[in-house]
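INFO batch 0412 | record 1 of 1 | parsing
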Amino acid sequence: MAILLVAMIIILIAADQLIKLWAVKSLEPVGSMDFIHFGDFEIFDLTYLENRGAIFGSMAGQRWFLVGFTSLVILAGIFVLFRYIKRSKLLSTAIALFVAGGIGNLIDRIRFGYVVDMFELKLFKFAIFNFADICVTFAFVMILVYAIFIDPKIEKKLKAEKTETKEVAADE
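INFO prediction complete | emitting tokens
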């Protein structure tokens, strides 16, 4: 399982960096490209953006704080991933997505001083984001699902097993 998760993280980071490379080479010179439109109804565009901050451009100019904070969060994610790797495939996958997304954006911050964003949802006014952001967002949703629906069942099962073990030990 660990090898698959590490491979997944590496593949996701590579995909993120390749998409960003494409954005720098093809999208930066033109700024923006129409992508999904129905007549005059705009849904999704590809728009080059250098995000020098965090979410929605907040904390702009805080490059080294963001590098340090992101590094700590990634290290915590890796620790949690390997600590609870056997607890749930959903949890392990979510944490791997989270770590991959964090590393993808961390690479940009260290290399360029900003994160390359390119996906612009035009259906409603929203931030421009990238593949790493998508990984982190899906990870967050998966962790919520895990915390609300799966973890309570696992905890209940573990508690029942612990109680059963104590009863068997008391009978002997």
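INFO post-check: Residues 45 and 172 are 69 Å apart (CA to CA).
INFO record closed
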